[in-house]
Amino acid sequence: MLKLPKFSMGVGDRFGQQGKAQLSAFIKAKELGVDIAPVWNKSNREHTTIGTQPPSVRVEADAAVKECGWSGAYFVDADHINLKNVDGFIDSSDFFTLDVAEAIGKPAAAADIDAFVQSMQKYVGSVAIDGLSAPLSVSQDDLVRIAKTYLGAVKEAGEIYRHIESKKGAGNFVTEVSMDETDAPQTPDELLFILAAIAQEKIPAQTIAPKFTGRFNKGVDYVGDLPQFEREFRDDVAVIRFAVKEFGLMDNLKLSVHSGSDKFSLYEPIRKALKDFGAGVHLKTAGTTWLEEMIGLAEADGEALDLAKEIYTQAYEHRKELCEPYATVIDIDFDALPEPFVVDLMESKAFVEALRHDQKCEGYDKNFRQLIHVGYKVAAKMGDRYLNMLRDNEEVVARNVAGNVFDRHLKPLFIG
Q: Is the pLDDT of residue 156 over 80?
C-alpha cells in the first residue's frame, strides 16, 4: 500500500517552473529533523486555464527530485477531480483528491439510506470520544438527516475510487475525500458518520478535507472566529482517531486543510493540536507559488517589473471575469484596488510590499494580492514571454518561492 507520511504539504505550481525551489524548502526542513512529504497538485481548472496537461506535473516533480537528490516520499495529486475528468490524470498521478462537494445534499437511494441508518443504531444517544470538547448527542432524526445529506456524496466518492482502482490497481495511489467546497462546515457527528460511510464504501481514504468555519480565501489569512476554528479542528482530529479504530479505516488517516496556504493565524493552533493528539495533517496550498513568481519579478526590477505591472493592468481591466470563478474564495473590494496608472508609477519596493503577504507591512494590500492571485490567466496568455522572464530571473524568483514555502509555511506549522 502506497502510504502518505504523517506530515505532507501540497505545493501547487501553476506554470511548472518552481519544482526545485519548492523542494529546497522541504530539504531544509529535513535537515532540521522534520520529514514532510511534498505533494505537487494541480487541478483540471488550472490545466485548462494555462493550457497544460496532467503529465507535465509528474515531469516537473520527477525532475526536481532527481536534480535535488531528494530521497523522501513525494506525490503528484490529481486535485479536485471527478468522474468527468479523472481519466486524464490516471497515468501521471499517485494521489487523487475526490471532490464530491457538489453531491452533498443529493440523497442516495432510499434503501441505501435505510441500510446505513440501521447499521449505525448503536451510536444513537450519547457518544463519548476521547479528546472531544463534549460528548456527541445523536438522535434518530440526526442520523437520518446526516445519511440523507452525505451518504450520496460518499457513494459518489466510492464510484470514483473504484474507477481509479480499476486502472491503477489497489494500493498504488493515495486517496483523499474532499467535502470542503460547500456552504456549511461539517459538525463532529456528521464527520463521524461520513467516516463510517467511507469505511462501508471500502474507500481506503488517507486524508479527508472537511469544511471548516470561517473563510479560507485564496492567498490571504483566515477570516473567522479563531477559537471556534481551533475547537473544530481538535474535535475533527479526535473524531478521526476514534473512527480509525471503530470502523477499521486507514491507520494514517488525517485531516487535509484546503486553501491552507497563507492561513498564518491558524498554524499555531493546528501545530498544538497535532502535538497534543500525535496526529498528522496535509496542508494544501492555493497557488501562492505564482504570487511569489510575481514578487520575484517585481524585485528584479527593470523589464521584469514592467511585465508584472502589465499583468496587473490586464487583470484590473478584466477583474470581473477573472474573479467570477473564484467568487466564493476571494473577497476583493474593487473600489479599493489601485488603478493601473497608480501601479505603473510604483517602484520595485512598493509593488513588492503591496503584494507580499506581510500583514505588519503598511504597504501590504490584500485586494491587490487577491486580484493578482486570480490573474494568472493573464500570464498564461503571454506564454513564452512570461516563462522566459521567469527563467531570466530564476535566482530572485526561486529565492522568494523557497523562502515562502519554508519560512511562512513549513517552519511555523511543522517545526515551530
A: yes
What are all long-range contacts of 309-313, with beta carbons under 8 Å and residues at least 24 apart? 309/340, 309/343, 309/344, 309/346, 309/351, 311/372, 311/375, 311/378, 311/379, 311/382, 311/386, 312/340, 312/343, 312/368, 312/371, 312/372, 312/375, 313/340, 313/343, 313/344
- To which residue does cell 507580499 refer? 356
Confidence of residue 282 (pLDDT cuts 50, 70, 90): very high
Q: How far apart are CA 68 and CA 24, in angstroms?
A: 8
Partner residues linked to 96 by β-bridges? 78, 175
Tallying the residues shown for the chain, one arrives at 416
Alpha-carbon torsion angle 95, 96, 101, 102, nearest 10: 160
Cα 263 from chain centroid (whole Å): 11
Q: Which segments of the chain belong to CATH 3.20.20.70? A: 7-287+407-415
Taking the C-alpha atoms of residue 59 and residue 180, their distance in angstroms, rounded to an integer, is: 29
Confidence of residue 181 (pLDDT cuts 50, 70, 90): confident
Provide the pairing of β-strand 7-10 with 37-43: parallel
Q: What's the mean pLDDT when you consider all of the chain?
A: 97
CATH superfamily to which 7-287+407-415 belongs: Aldolase class I (3.20.20.70)
